[in-house]
Records
---
Amino acid sequence: MIQLNNPSYYNNRELSWLAFNERVLQEALDPRNPLLEKLKFLAIFSSNLDEFFMVRVAGLQDQVKVGFNKPENKAGMTPKQQLREIALKNHQLVNLQYDTLRKILYPKLQKEHVHFLKVRELNDSQREALETYFDEHIFPVLTPMAIDAYRPFPMLLNKSINLAVVLEDPTKETDSEQRMRTAIVQLPAMLERFVQLPENGGLRKLLLLEDIIGFFIGKLFHGYEVKSTTVFRITRNADMTIHEEGARDLLKEIEEELKKRKWGAAVRLEVQKDGLDPVILDYLMRELEVHPKDVYEIDGFLDLTVFFSFYKKMAPIWEHLVYEGKISQLPAGMENGKAIFAKIADEDVFLHHPYESFEPVVEFISEAADDPDVLAIKQTLYRVSGDSPVIKALKRAAENGKQVTVLVELKARFDEENNVHWAKELEKAGCHVIYGMTHLKTHSKITLVVRKKQGRIERFVHLGTGNYNDQTAKIYTDMSLFTSKKEIGIDATNFFNYLSGYTEKPEFHYLSVAPFSIRKDILHLIDSEIRYEKKYGNGHIVAKMNSLTDKIIIMKLYEASRAGVKIDLIVRGICCLRPGIPGVSDNIRVRSIVGRLLEHSRVYYFHQNGKEKTFLSSADMMTRNLNNRIEILFPVLDKRVKGQVWEILELGLKDNVKARAQDAEGNYGYVRRMEGQAVIDSQMELFERAYQVAEDEE
């Protein structure tokens, strides 16, 4: 008798995430990617890892500290076991990351006449020029922090790079221990990390800020002899605890928690091997209370997220070392000058970003702001860009006298500060700003425009899988839909009224809303597919999402597989389901596409004996999304749009360039291309298709 809750049938959530980050790292090794893009993937890998430690590892460490030792409910690993396996895998990945940089990417940079140098490698005249630069530009900004009986170990900022300096006081005649002193110097965040020497014959010579400071560190400690300089970086627990029940003003509560985030408990210590003082390492571990497994001795410089700024600076100069530029196209029928409301009134409009432009979404809100017939705009905002045209349009709408209601999610992780700012700006402009429901994040993506035309009320709705962010819409793949269907307009009205006022949970015509019904509706659809498989033998489910962790959904998919339903999953990140287990998941295939663009769409397709049902959603099949967030799952009702979505899914299932397949042990490998099979990079193919449609429209 097969027990579907057997821990061996599941991947641990955290280890599955590390497997995803390994796929990101593989892009830095892919010979098809240009050099600057490879460096950017190293930065993405590091940035991902920072967040992983600040949230996921921090949470596990907290569990261990309070003595919680219960196994998690899928793979059955205790917090201690998870931390041990995370450390083992992650040390391997970080070593691979730096091996990639040193052995593969540095030589390629040198061929492009870029050299990363140490100060000790410079000649006398170069060092003299650098010393002048240090004295004039760096020294005035530095603050040495002595550590002694009167000055305890300083509270160092999360993710900051620091130099621990061991000094000897030659005036003391006592034993050597009493002659030794320790100080900390923090790298100023406002200074450029890479310092460039004057070019010589086209050579670009770069030095690291911390290496320069370390070389001239003695200038900060006159009268003392520098014995060692150790470069280190700490990562802190950045998870926030919001006491919503007791918070009279959620805005202020969030602002207070943001201040604390900078000073959470240390969860990781990175030290640079070059110049590492073992005594200082022991000292830092004691002071920061960091376990040895969370210490990373780095054979290279710390914090490779610096390659984000390097990429931004060099990309305009090195066009041959970045991806060929791709331009988002306007969708078919949107460029003929017809007003957007008239177009949506005629038919549903489907957008696939970034292959198709995000501009119609901005235009939709902007036109609503200026249209004298528009009475009200209601919108949810989770993450927006720094100079958001969406925010500008909403403010303008309020100033034009329209009823503007904006739900700003203040608890959007690592965007809290940004969202607090926008909430205040919107309120100043006269918008009615709400913050959602207690203990639930509002992650849904929906806009409702109410318009009065010739005495009749019209509702126009935009629903999507991604954020109202014009910048990430250029690099995230997302789908969205404009519709004027009456029932969906009524659903949207009821949805916003439920969030903003006191009313019972409404019954929706078409929308499915978490935490109330999405899981139940998905389970019902899978059950239905099982019945069709048993009766007609044609059961088929295709689902595309960022992550799959919900055990109830996974067990139901296992049940469907055992019944013979063919299941194709495209899961970019975490996937706790294991495919190909005999008698359990034989009929399930799992693939992950990691490439130039970040796959972010959530699509759920059910064959239903030919009565195909297709849904788009803001929600992944994760327990947190289904239990703790306000999410929307919405159907694709237009037959033409259904066909478009299916073509996208089908192409993803055929990708043999950037797709990796998961095996029954939870391991991933590139999808093998069969002899004679066409090369299919789904992302590039979708750009080509968008170009072709645009050409055909001309």
---
Amino acid sequence: MNWSLAFEPLISLPLLGLVLAPLLLLALAGLWFRQRGAVFRFAALLALGAALLNPVFLDEEREALKSVVAVVVDRSQSQDIGERTKQTDEALAGLQQRLGRFKQFDVRVVEAGKSEAAEERTETRLFGALESAFRDVPPSRIGGAIMITDGEVHDVPAGTPEFNAPLHALITGNDQEKDRRIRFENAPRFGLVGKPLEMTYRVIATNNEAGSVDVRVSVNGEQVSVERAVIGQAMPLQVTIPSAGRNIVELAIDPEPGELTDTNNRAIALIDGIRENLRVLLVSGEPHAGERTWRNLLKSDASVDLVHFTILRPPEKQDGTPINELSLIAFPTRELFVEKIKDFDLIIFDRYQHRDVLPILYYDYIAEYVEKGGALLIAAGPEYAGESSIARTPLMSALPAMPTGEVVDKAFYPRLTDLGQRHPVTRALDGSATEPPHWSRWFRTIGVENPEGEAVMKGADNRPLLLLDRKGEGRVGMFLSDQGWLWARGFEGGGPHVQLYRRIAHWLMKEPELEEERLIADGRGMMLEIRRQTMSDDPGPAQIITPSGKAMTVKLEGSEPGVFLGSIETNEIGLYQVGNGDLKALAHVGPVNAPEFTDVVSTEGRLKAPTEATGGSVRRLAPSSALGNLAGGVTLPSVVPVRASGAATGNDWIGLRTTDDSVLKAVSRVPLFGGFLGLGLLLLAMGSMWYREGR
């Protein structure tokens, strides 16, 4: 029972004071002057005042509230190492059994570390989970918290946790663990293709281990070197970025006997390869309507350094003008085609014909340049079908088609072939989805025979219009019309000449994104996405090897001609190997070098400060001194309810605070001056006063 006295005045307090104050003054004056009957008058006044104040005894029925206790369970990937999962499960079951004995505790179990978001899975964020568990709880009802973790927590607050209650940490693993890991100290995000890139890394070992280890260096899955690294020291590394776009540099060391895990024995750096400006040599024949189309396009591309020569005065042209009055620049044939030909990424002949400007031997040099990896583009006009065609020079070995001598002057819409629908150079070309295509007509096609390579566009009478071919290590493209300038000039609405010409040039210069056969894998969040470019109708499924070594397959579905896509949701963070046919690709899922794996040795140090600041404790579930515990057994402390001012930890016990908060369920009222009892007391007091006054 919880009794208390309350007053429920029958009239308002101001009115009550106005009535009783004069009477009280008179009664007190009577007592002061010792008048006869003053005591009875004062007693009657008190009885009247008490009746008007209406005192009431209240009996409150209250129910005690429970203290809220949070048990935060670390389910991050580092908890999967060794016996930690088993220790965690045993500790959780034991705590739930112990806490279940106390009715004054409301236990909330919160598991952290298995969020769907990749950025949350790569860090152990237990204090964020703890805050969420107490979000709807008043501070006075927080009884404490218990964390079951390996101690590698990444959101430990700098100061004392915001709740005023004991925080206890139970650490999985044991204090004899050892591990060796490798990490990048300095890894630039960008690097020039074909140029050395400076990086630094460090091998770290527990227990201040000394010595050196071999470090395998791989770029895009291929081992390029083996370095010798001194443990604990920052080591320099120089790698060459092989290709534009995403490159994966991986460092790996062999696992040590008895090591916790080899997950952190690899370090990954993602580096975007950037090409230096591409050097293009453009050689134009006699001036024509579309001469500046290629020049304007290449000059507008900031990634291209253009060298352009136009043959305005061939050697056979003799008009009697003295040499000293000519302002033309002599064509530096030897410098361009002998000394510096290897410096160019692409050579373009725009309606060029052999007119003894180039010695016949130099065409052989150009053919050799293509065979060894160079790129050549022929923009052919009527001269390609004539007697002075470059097809009648030693360059013929590098050309994808020989002329028939026929020039077809006939209006036509350039169209994509079946191969062109799938080829990256012409696939989804703006305006190609309609029939006729949504671009202007051309009016000339150069006839060829026995075309090689891939005909991706066709002209009048379905003749080849654009040929793409590989010669040795190099590539050759041939445009069998000189009418592309009609698109550039906006004739009949124009056409996508910039898009097409740029794709052709970059395919010839081996841009990875324009490869016909290409396998791309990328991680987005915890999703592994696969993109397959192919000229075939069905590339088949993709084979995947996970970071832990498990194999699986993913079906690739066609999304557009020449493109097949596939995806799979993963639950492992790390490097995935993807294969399809002869192609292989690497993809890293999740953040690179996630904190979850940088240090996996269980520790008491990180949680020592916040637990001691709240009056709690940190202790191991399986100390190495207990031989039985090395097999995975745990030793749990006893749980003791304590008052707010009491100690919350001991040698073999942990304390959780109880609350004094309660909730009111019912109230019983007993009026003191209610009913006949109150009326009788009031009449007795008044009658006594009158009786005394009557005497």
---
Amino acid sequence: MFGKSLNKSFVILTGGFFLLILLSLIHLTQGQAEYSISELLSEVWVEGRIQDIVLSFRLPRLVIGILAGGALAVSGALLQTLTKNPLAAPGTLGINAGAFFFVVASTIFFPSLIGNYPFLTALLGAVVSSVMVVMLAGRQMEPVRVALTGMIISLMFASVTGALQLLFENKTNGLFLWGAGTLVQLNWNGITFAAPVIVIAFGCALLLAKPLDTLSLGEDIATSLGQKVSTVKLATWGVAIVLAAVTVSVVGPIGFIGLMAPHIVRMLGVKGHVMIVIHSFLWGAIMMIGADVLGRIIQPGQEVPVGAMTALIGGPWLLYLAWKTARSIKRSDRQMGGTTSPIRLKVMIPILMAMITLSVVIAFSYNGTEWSHNWTNPYIWNFRIPRVLTSFIVGMILAVTGVLLQGVLRNPLADASVIGVTSMGGAGAMLLLVMFPAIPAAFMPLGAIIGSVAALLIILVTAWKNNFQPMLVALMGIAISAFGSAATQVFVVKAKLAVAAALVWLSGSTYGKGWDDVYYALILFALFIGPAIYMTRKLDTLTFGDDVASGLGVSVRSARVWALVIGVALSTIAVSLVGTIGFIGLVAPHIARRLVGYRHLPLILVSGLLGGLLLVTADLLGRILITPNEIPSGLIVAVIGTPYLLYLLRKMK
């Protein structure tokens, strides 16, 4: 039996090795300087043009791709075993995002540190994000909770990183392409630095293989066999973090390799952590080089981030894993909860209206340097006032969307960004610009609508047979969101958009809104708020579980479909107007639930007002903090909302 397993493993290794050689030969022939594989094999051994190109540029890129792909795959394999979570990987746990944030921050504030110690900087960020995930997700590492925690931590670090890139554009201009993950190497320095670290960490992973085999039997059994479980866990975390950090420090944050490669290895029937680690390294390298080859085939002569390509390939894979994981998890019927002493609406509404009035008056009158109460001034009337009104309406839309989606998923961490609508809407808008470069910006909402509808259709098709199980929809949404974000990165590079302009739109901005935007937002909001309010009674019933709701005559599937459709329609309106703004749909409903309880009618009313207040305040702060420059509203919202979300994650049982 052992011999058959060993023979099978050898066959898989041999086949993978020859596939890697083939991809490597193709990889070495790609670029602006063209030559064939036969010319490469015959002339690379002698001095000349081909040898210079290969040794100076293409071979370093190939080698770092093999090392980085292998390192990420091994890191993912270790994390999946350690957390007993099939969705665990450096990207999904926020490790890559934390490492990249620390690299960007060091580039801005401590340039000598990042120049001399890039690995230590990335390592510090990876450790911080890992500790946050462990603390917030809990010791049980429940898959859905871990996935949501990792996603929110990634959003947090990505938002702050985006803000830094905008505020310090000159210092970080070269990091945009690298931040999407790129294998471009101008010399051998990155390899000479990364290779020893990866080799040593790989050796440590092999040494940990047998203890991990024992740990896989269960902590109690491992302890009874004399294993120091805490020591093994800590060492495994350390090796996985080092592998991810060294990769980020050299090639940027590249996702999905660490998720896909270990699963492919296990699907091939490889067992035992020694073989899993070895095979994961090989197939991680194959996937990385294959993604880079594919990226340069799609866009010859132009650099497409390999991180975006791995996400485009890995998005469907994560969809499959999410579907498989959700089916194996027991259906959750817990109530959403809320305060046991809700504040009456006749008290709460006037308080919120007073706060909104005060914030709107300040936003109308103050430009960051001086006050003006002459609201008929052409500049204020034509630019500032419609901008503030658009912010208020969009804030209400996002908050109402969050209430609907949280009601559908029975999860206070759900909103349009969690189910992928926001990112796919952004990807759709960018796709329209790529396909029709001459099209006016006014048609971008059409692309956003197409992308959002695509996200909705994927959810409807995959979750229909499972009666829209909340965990399934949430996990599918995470996969869709990752896919949409990757597609957007590819389209930004392909469209050759200015880095700052792309970051502003992707971060969510209310800049340049006029009265036409106010009318558009108001009409569509008025069109959909009625159906949203109509759904409140059904959502109230769903909070008590599917069985109770069905017993009371509610069609659970129909209620979830219509709530999803209305929520997606509202979020599409928001994306088409201001780009991708998150967090409001997460934060506003939860604050409202603490104030007025879990009943959805008062929840929608109070959440809507809170959402409008939050976005108006964020827009005002974005205008005045660094005047005459501006910070996109979406980044301000993320900075405001992140601490509360982290508190919420910590409190959730």
---
Amino acid sequence: MSAPVTERVRDRVPWGGSRILALLATALAIGAPLRTMYYLSDVVGDPTLFLALAALSFVGATLLARVLRPPLAVAVGAVLFAGGVGAYILNLSTNPAITELLSDTVALLTGRSLLQIAEVRLWVLSFAPAPVFLTWYFALRRWYVTATVAAGTALAFFALTTDAGVVTTLLGVVGIAATIGFGTLDTLSTDEPADLTKRPDAMTGSDGTERADDDGDGIDAGRRAVLEQLAAIIVVPAALSQVPITRDSLLSYDDESEGQTVEGSLFDAGESLSVRGSISLTPEIRYTVESEEPRYWRVASYDRYTGNGWVRTGNPRQYDDQRLDSPPGETRTLRQEFRAESSIGTVPAAWKPVRYSGEPSVSVSSEGGFQPDGPLSTGDTYEVRSELLVATPDGLRAAGTDYDDTTTELYTQLPDSTPDRVGERTAILTANAENPYETALVVERWLQNTKGYSLNVDRPDFNVADAFLFEMDEGYCVYFATTMVTMLRTQGIPARMTVGYTSGQRIDEDQWVVRGLNSHAWVEVYFPGQGWVQFDPTPSGPREAVRQQRIEDASSDGSSPTVGDGNPVERYTPPDTSTPAPLTETNGTETEPTETPTATGTDTPTGTTEASDTDEGTELSIPELPSREELTLGVVALLGIAAGARRSGLSERAYRAVWLRYQRRVDPETDVERAFQRAMYVLATEHRGRKSGETVRAYLDAIGADDRVRRLATLRERLRYGGEVSEAMADEAVEIADGIVSER
């Protein structure tokens, strides 16, 4: 039957269960990338327009499925895709836009998240219609494999960009597999009639001879084959979804003896940062710093808040030894020299760095800081010159709100799913504030005074800032900084999440030792005409006590860590009572940073509780239970392995090997029949199978069977025609079969 006739036959067939299931599976297959795109749209703004475009694509595919031929449908999809790419290029602010598009595409295919693209909302709106239209159109036309190609391509792309999580990827893979499976059943029931009354393996044996004992329905065989394939093709993607495609960070900073550390949680993420639960502290020395004054040694900042973490948008550029821009306000110069005391992948510096010299080479991040092009080895040194903002409270109060469009767009962004109560609570708390500076002071002070400091917290399931603001009593620096930035953004004040190290342990007049547990997160707020100003909402006293205790615990073995050329760091010396204040007078003397002093100079690493740090090893270690996602993947992987083994024949061969070599005794009749079948299997393997209609005696004569086999055949004849066999006869039959099998 020709293809058009076949299509007409299918169109006349009423919708059956297989077709409905195939369409539901297709919806799941395309739903996985749609879920990812919805999340991306929600993070950067209102997803309503995205939902409208997706709905229009579904409706269009449904209306055109019966009237539009497949080649034209492909052309429509191509036009939608090309139009989306064109719209994206035309709205890119950089020039040349084509170059940026190509560089972004390459970066995305090698593990860069779409959230790192500044125009991600435009990208999603441009990309969404084509795969949705093509997937649903071909599913309605019953071209199920083609439909899954469109959905699978979109899902694979989001998996490569790491935007599709494990659960989303797994759901998409299940949907694709189910679409193919149920689609095969649907087409089996509507294709031109074929002789499906016999399974292929029911009509012929392994040697090509007819098998008369196994009758069955062809569609049942097809159904079983489809289900086996369905499970088999899940295992590989499920396993691959457990493997990270790429990592942005150069090195891991985890202390393996204590698990994930604060430092690791802040810096291993590279271009993105996920808020975690409880983590531990590491006293490992990272840098020694020579500087005329202590500062917060800044590593990076993040502008895009996702609700459960942070992302830095934009692309880094190579540093060409040219002086970077200073802050717009009045500044003074600070020189710092860093020496790496361990292998590490960051180049901290006081904000705002303008010059760099040393090894390795560095790039300039999108927010204007330095990031290394390669890891630092122990002993590597580099020098940074920074321009420190000189500002006064009065100057910041008078800065106003004349923000440029780019700053407003980047640094007031919040996920659309951010609860309204965050902004409502912030507005109430800051009702008496007359300007952004006072608003920032109120929020900073409120968090310091009302929230406790703890290194042992349960990570919220949803929006971190909302949970910390309303449901949590304690947290560590990441929670404080995330919440303050979110609160300020609800009031239209540009703010960003910043990570780095506090000043560290002072070991000389102008020298500091910076440890892993000095890692910290704080807040930077933008003021027109001034630039970015540091605020630290994390209460300093409790975190200092935890950090100092951790250092003393690490030194309890009697050994002293060394730095530089072997100079010992024998004991912890608390820093000055106030650490780098963000506000200084023009003469260089420190002033009251705010009504509530800005931060202390100690670490704000996160980690386990004091008990977990000081009483390490005194409690029974209970293995962490696998997460729901890990359990799901484990079950799916096991099912896939089992189905794959069955489909490849491995499970059958294994079963046959056990069945052949081991006979469990049941009763004389069953034992004799089983022994006979075992012997016949060996004979079929060594000679040939019994032909259809060929008697047992004729078959044994044809292959020249020996007396043992003939005796076994005689015992079976007595069973079949005499009706009864004795226990002794069963013993004899099993013994004969065992001997034949052992000689195989």
